[in-house]
């Protein structure tokens, strides 16, 4: 006869959920609601006086050519960082999953960059690629490559992309490696017995079985690029030169903290939040269909 366990304390599950619910309410829903309300106000730089102006902040926001430029910059930056960090992390994870003598050392070295703060990661890459002081920029000048991310927008974009990708590879690497190690070896051996080569086994067996992990990382990387790369951009380029690296999240900071336009900055926060929620919903609606659980 099958025995059924009965949990008698009905209040304990809610008590265990309470800390997470409080954190979510205090640090997400409450600030989000404040940003929505603030986007309908016109405030002074110190937030002492405010007037209700309705949708004027949104009308002024979408009348700015600079805002559309920041949207395009964000699209380019997010696409490059997400694609490169996922692809490189998957490549490294497949190599670390092999039976190599130095695999444990390689895994530890791959994980270390995740412990570095985004702003610190940006400063490290700036030290290497600073046009006059950088350790790697000097050999580039000797070879005749006029590298200057302080004046060239394309060079600045390349620099923050490299820093953001380097910072995120470790996170993606951990999940890809865990996903690879969970794949039964018997399945791969069966493919090899059937005559499938390494590349064919990867694309027909390994990668489909990694699709849940890939989907999860795709969602996480989109959020990372839209929000967590602020520290890198602020430390490396400050949104320059000439706004070429000003993403949407950095423009929120520049207009609100530096420009004193609190209402307009709040409106940008609301638009950015809506875009990220919409992108996440689209990924769950369409991309998840191709995930094989």
From TrEMBL:
Keywords: Cell inner membrane, Cell membrane, Membrane, Transmembrane, Transmembrane helix, Transport. It comes from the Bacteria. The chain crosses the membrane at residues 12-32, 71-93, 105-128, 156-180, 201-227, 266-287. CDD domains: TM_PBP2. It is found in: Cell inner membrane; Cell membrane. Residues 71-283 form the ABC transmembrane type-1 domain. InterPro entries: MetI-like (IPR000515), MetI-like_sf (IPR035906), UgpAE/MalFG_permease (IPR050809). Coiled coil: none annotated. It is a multi-pass membrane protein. The keyword Cell membrane applies. Gene3D superfamilies: MetI-like (1.10.3720.10). Its main location: membrane. Belongs to the binding-protein-dependent transport system permease family. The complex is composed of two ATP-binding proteins (UgpC), two transmembrane proteins (UgpA and UgpE) and a solute-binding protein (UgpB). Part of the ABC transporter complex UgpBAEC involved in sn-glycerol-3-phosphate (G3P) import. Probably responsible for the translocation of the substrate across the membrane. This is sn-glycerol-3-phosphate transport system permease protein UgpA. The lineage of its organism: Bacteria, Pseudomonadati, Pseudomonadota, Alphaproteobacteria, Hyphomicrobiales.
């Amino acid at each position: 006869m099958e025995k059924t366990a009965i949990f008698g304390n009905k209040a304990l599950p809610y008590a265990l959920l309470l800390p997470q619910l409080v954190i979510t309410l205090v640090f997400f829903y409450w600030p989000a609601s404040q940003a929505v309300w603030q986007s309908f106000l016109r405030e002074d730089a110190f937030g002492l006086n405010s007037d209700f102006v309705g949708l004027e902040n949104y009308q002024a926001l979408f009348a700015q050519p600079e805002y559309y430029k920041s949207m395009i910059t964000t699209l380019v930056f997010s696409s490059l960082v997400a694609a490169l960090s996922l692809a490189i992390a998957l490549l490294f994870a497949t190599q670390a999953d092999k039976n190599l003598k130095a695999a444990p050392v390689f895994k530890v070295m791959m994980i270390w960059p995740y412990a570095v703060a985004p702003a610190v990661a940006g400063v490290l890459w700036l030290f290497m690629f600073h046009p006059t002081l950088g350790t790697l920029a000097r050999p580039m000048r000797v070879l005749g490559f006029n590298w200057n991310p302080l004046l060239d927008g394309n060079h600045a974009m390349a620099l923050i992309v490299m820093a953001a990708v380097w910072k995120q590879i470790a996170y993606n690497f951990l999940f890809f490696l865990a996903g690879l190690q969970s794949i039964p070896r018997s399945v791969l051996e069966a493919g090899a017995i059937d005559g499938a080569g390494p590349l064919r086994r990867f694309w027909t067996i390994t990668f489909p079985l990694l699709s849940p992990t890939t989907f999860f990382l795709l969602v996480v990387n989109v959020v990372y690029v839209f929000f967590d790369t602020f520290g890198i951009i602020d430390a490396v380029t400050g949104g320059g030169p000439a706004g070429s690296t000003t993403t949407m999240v950095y423009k929120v900071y520049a207009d609100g903290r530096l420009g004193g336009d609190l209402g307009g900055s709040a409106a940008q926060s609301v638009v950015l939040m809506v875009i990220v929620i919409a992108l996440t919903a689209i990924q769950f609606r369409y991309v998840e269909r191709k995930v094989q659980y």
